[in-house]
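$ ./design --mode recover --in tokens.txt
reading tokens...
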């Protein structure tokens, strides 16, 4: 869809939402980033994956990459609280799903960061944020696969101060996102989304904010033909 038509749709849909909703969309758009994203490898507990999704939205991380080898990604609505509507979820399954995902991220210029409980790796606070980051998390018990570790550019850990050896996966993701997004917003000049990406998300979010959004778009496009 070309930019002019997309803007026409945005203008049309804006007439069906409250001023408060329209302003909220603009406020959230200004805080969204693709400088960091999250990769989840084969999580099998829906509540953990759902909590990570909710944290992505809360911290302004737009993109979630999900590897589905043995377990399907099924968000739990009572935990996500609708967060799935506002994120871009990229799913990979089938043969070498992880490899396909990581190849794409590397092609787009991301540094692959593997999370690990091993104490001899750098802490998350030491990971540089000058380049785009893909933060990888593995399944609840086995953690990341050997392939993920082999493909990682950097490995990092969250410091543990007590007897517990590790955090829950959703807690780990939230801690890491808070640390990275906070530093990114204070030190990276171009952390925000470019205007063309904002326009696309503005259109999608407006449509999802309206009960009959899809039908309104279909009717509008039909009238324009």
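writing sequence...
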């Amino acid at each position: 869809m070309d930019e002019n038509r997309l803007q026409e749709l945005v203008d049309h849909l804006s007439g069906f939402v409250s001023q408060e909703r329209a302003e909220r969309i603009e406020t959230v758009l200004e805080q969204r980033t693709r400088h960091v994203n999250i990769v989840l490898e084969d999580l099998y507990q829906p509540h953990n994956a759902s909590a990570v999704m909710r944290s992505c939205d809360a911290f302004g991380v737009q993109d979630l990459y999900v590897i589905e080898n043995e377990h399907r990604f099924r968000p739990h609505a009572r935990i996500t609280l609708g967060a799935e509507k506002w994120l871009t979820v990229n799913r990979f399954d089938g043969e070498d799903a992880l490899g396909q995902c990581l190849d794409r991220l590397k092609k787009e210029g991301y540094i692959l960061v593997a999370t690990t409980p091993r104490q001899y790796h750098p802490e998350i606070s030491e990971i540089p944020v000058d380049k785009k980051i893909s933060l990888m998390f593995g399944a609840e018990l086995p953690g990341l696969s050997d392939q993920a570790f082999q493909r990682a550019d950097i490995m990092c850990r969250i410091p543990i101060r007590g007897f517990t050896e590790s955090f829950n996966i959703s807690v780990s993701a939230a801690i890491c996102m808070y640390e990275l997004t906070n530093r990114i917003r204070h030190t990276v000049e171009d952390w925000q989304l470019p205007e063309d990406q904002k326009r696309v998300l503005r259109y999608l979010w407006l449509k999802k904010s309206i009960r009959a959004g899809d039908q309104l778009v279909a009717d509008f496009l039909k009238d324009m033909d």
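exit 0
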